[in-house]
Structures are given as C-alpha cells and as structure tokens.
C-alpha cells in the first residue's frame, strides 16, 4: 500500500464552503435566528398531519415520480406534468441544472453578490463562474450580464428577488434581457422568494417561461411555505430541460414526508399566504424604521432586508447577537436580516437604533 491519497478533482480545491446562517444559541445567548431566511411560523396543522401520516411508512421508499405533488403543481401553475421536476430543495435542483448544462470549459454567468450557492455549485460542475457585479443600487446589471455571455456560456442565473439584497428585476428589463440571450443558453429564474413580492412590475417567471424554451423557473417550499427542514423544491421548464432534470435526480431524494407536506401546503395555501402577508407588513415596518433611524436600505421584495455596513459588518452582527438576534453577516459588505416574529424584529430594530446612535455621535 502506498501512502498516496485517492485522486480527487482539482476543481474542488478552491470551492468556498457554504456558510449556513448561524443558529440562535438559547440559554443566555441570542434567542432568535434571523440568519437563514426561514419562515418563523410552524407548519399549518393539516401539513403536520400529512407529514406525520407519511412518517408511518418510513420503511418504504418514497414515490420516485412524486406523482401526487407533480399533479398538484401542474394544476396550481397550469403547466404540463412533463414540465415539472422536483428535487432536494431548489438548491438541489439548481445543482442538477448545472449537471445537465455545464462542464469544464463552459461558463456560467450570474450577478454578484447573489445566492452563495451559485459559486459553489458552478465550480463543482467544473465550469467557470463569471460573476457580474450588482449596480450601485444593489440591482442586477442586466446589460453587463448580457455583455458577459460568450459562446462558452451555458447557463445564466437571475435571482429575483436577489439574495441577499432583496432587489428585483422588473418585467420590461427582464423581457428585453431574455430576448437577447442566445436561445441555446439556459436562463434560470430563481424565484425562491416569489410569494413575498408585492411590486406589480415584477414578472412571474412562470408566465415568461411559457413561450421561451430556454427559460427555467426555480421555486421552493422552504421559504413562504415554511418547509425548509424537509428539503423540497422544483423547477418548471420545457420538456427537454425538465426531462434532463428528472434523469439527474438522486433516486428517491425527495422523501414522502416532504412530498405529502408539500401537497398539504398547497391545499392550505390561502392560510399560508395570510402569514406571508403578515411578514410583508413586518418587512415594511422594519425597512421604514431602519430608514427613519438613518440607514440606507434597498427596496426589498423578499423576506429579508439588506444593510450595507462595509468594514463595520462583523461589529454590527456582534451587537445584534448581544441584543438577542443572530443576523447573517457577509464580511466587509453588510448584513442580511430575515423578517421574523414581531418580538425578534423589535429586538433587531432596537439593536440597530442603538448602533446608529453610537455611529452618529
Ligand atoms: C435565491 C435562493 N435560491 C434557492 C435557495 C435554496 O432554497 P432551498 O434549497 O431550501 O429550496 C435559497 C435559500 O436560501 C435562496 O436564497
């Protein structure tokens, strides 16, 4: 036996680790976690019952085709069943999207800063990540993204609203962009936070995909639907893309618990969306109060707000922790703060106010 290690792919060497939002410590530590864009509400009663019933069959593999869920989604979005593919969270589906389009020598274009999984899953595929800086207003620079597309580009992510800034791409700009992207490049509209959008100018990706074979919409049950722990998301795309996604899925990756809870969540949609309305109202309150305190807060259409803090980022995050809430710092840039239960939001607002007073002194 020699002492050499198994040969691993060299592209893995410089892949950044995914940094999960820090948990609330409990005890004397911070009581509330505002660091992962989770939904603060527990699942609705019907959802819990479906999941518990499915737990009775944990000795069985789940339905590979997620038949019941796919049927419910097809009806909900008025799309053919063949245009749907489910996965282990929308990040799982995003990774499959790279598997079906990109390899070494190819390029993947996305805005930066954006969802931190994009650089990771792009590099795992072996393709080169082409990161196009956000504009000064923290928005996608669609013209620069168009200019970054080459004959090697295979996939473009548009995160709408963008994580972590909450900013959006509006209809006219997105349509103009889609009309100009070469038709053999897949454009992924990542709409993880779609249900929180209240700006009527923001298009529904599902309407845009209908007559565009190179557009794929990503959605998740993790955010508005509150099922982050069950790992279930899906794509809506034309047949060749959706079929390729189904081919690359980890067999039985989406548990029956997840499938049945998702179906029950769709059935309980009006009650769920009332909760989303409450979070949207809290979002307006938080953004309004922060601006009144003197912060610059970009207009957000997601379940979080973004505060640009530059070199003060970690200091601010530590001050929030001392007050009892964990936020998500991006070193040297800013913090993303999830809209949560009122009590947690109040703690955050008062920590932000104290910090601001110190700064303005
Ligand atoms: C923009 C965006 N897309 C996708 C996801 C992945 O969510 P999930 O894998 O839980 O569906 C997230 C989660 O934070 C996100 O912010």
UniProtKB/TrEMBL annotation:
Classification via Gene3D superfamilies: Aspartate Aminotransferase, domain 1, Type I PLP-dependent aspartate aminotransferase-like (Major domain)
Molecular function via GO: histidinol-phosphate transaminase activity
InterPro entries, alphabetized: Aminotrans_II_pyridoxalP_BS (IPR001917), Aminotransferase_I/II_large (IPR004839), ArAT (IPR024892), HisP_aminotrans (IPR005861), HistidinolP_aminotransfase (IPR050106), PyrdxlP-dep_Trfase (IPR015424), PyrdxlP-dep_Trfase_major (IPR015421), PyrdxlP-dep_Trfase_small (IPR015422)
Location of N6-(pyridoxal phosphate)lysine modifications: 223
Entry keyword set: Aminotransferase, Pyridoxal phosphate, Transferase
Cofactor needs: pyridoxal 5'-phosphate
Pfam families in UniProt: Aminotran_1_2 (PF00155)
Domain of life of the native organism: Bacteria
Aminotransferase class I/classII large domain span: 32-345
EC number: 2.6.1.57
Catalyses which reaction(s): an aromatic L-alpha-amino acid + 2-oxoglutarate = an aromatic oxo-acid + L-glutamate
Tagged with keyword Signal: no
Subunit record text: Homodimer.
Known function: Aminotransferase that catalyzes the conversion of aromatic amino acids and 2-oxoglutarate into corresponding aromatic oxo acids and L-glutamate.
Family statement drawn from the similarity comment of this UniProt entry: Belongs to the class-II pyridoxal-phosphate-dependent aminotransferase family.
Name of the molecule in the record: Aromatic amino acid aminotransferase
Lineage, highest ranks first: Bacteria, Bacillati, Actinomycetota, Actinomycetes, Kitasatosporales
